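If your schedule permits, I should be very grateful for your opinion on a structural question. Thank you for your consideration; the sequence and its tokens are set out here:

===
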Amino acid sequence: MLLFLNTYSKKFNGLYQMIKSAKNIGFIFVLISITVLTGRFFLNSKNNFINNVTTNIERRTIYEKLKPLLDKAKLASDQSDYLKVINILKQINQKINILNESELQKNIYRGKNLNAIAQNYQAIAYFKEAEDYYLKAAKVYLDIPFKENSQYVLENYLYLSNLYSEIEDYDRGIATLLIANNLIEEQIGKKIPESFIIAGEIGELYLDKGEFLSAEVFIEAAIKGLEEFNVNHEMKSKYQLELADLYIRQKKYIESEKLLSQLIKKKYYKNPNIFIALSNVLLSQGKFNEAEKIALQLIKENKENYNLKSNPDYPYLIANIAYIYDYQKLFLKSQPYHLSLLNPDYDLSYLDNDFKISILNNVAHNLLSLGSYEEAERLLNFAIEANKIRFSDADEKYIKPLSNLSLLYYLQGRQDESNKYGYQALQKTFESMQKRVQELNILDRQNFISDSYQKFHLFPFAFIEQDSSYKNLAFFSRINYQGLLQDIENRQNRLKILDPEIKQLRNNIKLIESKLSSNKTLNSEKFRRELFSRKIELEKSLNVLLPKLNPIIYDAEDIASVIPKDSVLIEYQKYDSAKKEPFKNLKPKEKYLALILSPDGNISSFDLGSAEVIESTIDAATKATKLKTNNALQKWREVSDLIIKPLTEEINQKDRLIISPDSALNKVAYSALGSPLSENLLNDDFQVNLITAGRDLLDINQANSHKSTMPIVIANPDFGKPKSNIRRFKNIKSDFYKRTETEILEYELELKGTSSQSWKSLPFSKLEGQDIKEIINAQLFMNEEAKASLIFENNISPKIIHIASHSFYHDAYYDSAIEDYNKNPLNRSGIVFAGANLNFENDNDDGFLTALEISRLDLRGTELFVVSGCDSAMGDLRIGEGIYGLKRSIAVAGAQSSLLSLWNIRDDSTAIFMTSFYKRLKKGESKSEALYSTQRDFREGKIKSSNPELYDWSKPFYWAPFQLSGDWKSIEL
């Protein structure tokens, strides 16, 4: 491309090489210029520029000799005869040489004229020629003083970037604008108004390119600069609308609604796209009536004020109201609007091609809902072919037509074709999700994938009820979605980062999260808000700089190849059975289903029935266990009859069950379940192992190459005696069972936190720590040394981490200062360490380690992380992500396995339990075997309380809460 550059000056060749090679320098500019950019946008539409040029020239009497040519150019421009305009402008360019003007002034005229030629070439899609002339203009402008003539120079670069945008060469467009900004920095040395427009235009290019995070950074910078300089309100509003649209794509509806509401209040900025975007935001939040009212009012106003046949906004307004009705499954109501777009009585040729393709897909979806399958199929195939012309095979714009085709063939009973297109749609969905979530802060990721994924992801599970051939598609969906966010966080944590700036950002985020969870900041609402805002900005900068992970898609064959012999993988899934009738507005009918994968790759599916029945049975068994009733094991057998017994035919010849639970099945005490083969418990007849997702088997099957340090044991922390009664807003769930025989823990639980007298000491944890230290040759930290900073501040990854202390989880925390911070359940669970009762007295360590803080650690060398405390396995339940609590954080940090508790536990029995577990581990038993053997010894009375009549350790309350998740193999000690 651009061979003519071979004859250009070295200076200009260097400039072009910057454009040609600058594929990834946009991120550098984020760091250099996030506060640099200011300004106003002086570009009109490209076809009007010739008028401006001729008008400016005509003002000068010296151009009278050019007037005949100028008049001809003006007339040709008015008639849209672009080639004629170009020929005339080329003649003018020759005559500029004989003007009686300074060489500087002539260069300015040459540059403007060359730019006008380029615009006219661009108008007729002669893109190569247009590029040539924009670059010729750039070469001319290199010979004029930049500071006094910056508008002409920058204008040319903006037009050139617009050309690259039109031909979808976004990298060169961005590079061109970065060079323009560098000229400002080098030649002027300070911010000028145009700098912010450059930022906004770069942001729009990133948006078109699909890189949302970079787009967000640049557009936000442009808006901020325009606010500071208080110039060009029109451009500020333009970028605010772009940012609101970006927030919609990121599923950040509240932020988008706030921006759009601000724009509506601006009387001078009238743009129907604001109201279209607002109606979509309201729709996505379930505010259907408000969305419909806005959409219909827009149509009414346009009918009253414009000629609809020539109004470029009208088709978008029609598509918007149709989408609003389709979203609510009011398909008959939306159909007239769809058909008016498909067979309009006005010209649609000017519409954006992407919008035309979306019309095809949306009309097809509507026809599909009304049973017009043949016509829907034709439109969908046409949409796919149009996408092939416009986009690469990996583009996410294929997802909707592919998923609609899968749905169409399902409704027609054409299972093979339905599965084929369903697989393609899901594959592109997972690829898109993995790219997109990396750009989002941790807090926004769950909302993003829930909104964008569950509309299609769970359909295959409902389809199985009609045809079992969908089991393979359902399994593909399950293994690629379950634990996806956990997997991405873990992969990001494992990146080998040498960049000191990234390391510093991570450390700063870690420090802020520590301060946010500290007692010292909890009573200062202003300080907490400032900290939280700072954390969000740092996370955004970190996400920009982190190397991007390539999407990984898994197939059943990948997982089957690592399933041990005589084992099966059981993937449980909660889903809405009503989805099998996708176009009916039915109430949700939630059920559970089990998918079983064998080492030979065979997949079986089992309908387990009502989710309500299963979950109520689990709750009843858990309650009976906590109350220590004699029928607790019978209650767990009832659970087993619902979730294990239906699988008997597939598992009865197997030795090992590898279970990946979903939703409430994460709360099941699997060690207490009854066996479907006998009167034994399940783990008497099978080895039972729990994992988050089936793809975890790939990591378990690989040898751990990361170095570990000596095991550490933290026990019997000295929580301290409070020296003041200052209210502590650390929201801690009280430990009613983790105590000695006579101790009572008293907590005054309140909405905003816990006002407690103290965390009571755990004397048996001292014995627990001392015994385990001797067994596994560990470092022991007790009393005042049992600090959170041992783990949090030291960059270590012990082979085993054992913590014998209080732990906590609270399912309803409200912080009036920063409610968003506590939406993350990892801030509402954690472990208690030394000094926890000292309120605000310790500057460096508040005595708590939250699950979020743990997730920031590097524990890739840790083979086992044990929290011998109450509720340590609990957290918020998230469909597709398991439990958000300590268990998840430990996995994200890279530890290979965790041993946690499902409910409140006693201090004395737990100490004996853990000692027995480690003795067996030391003898060479695997982690799962050591756990099973210890649980069996408790329930068979081989290990008993000193007062068995009062404290019967054979009851499941004492031995069943302990849940091993992850790698079940042995540890070399």
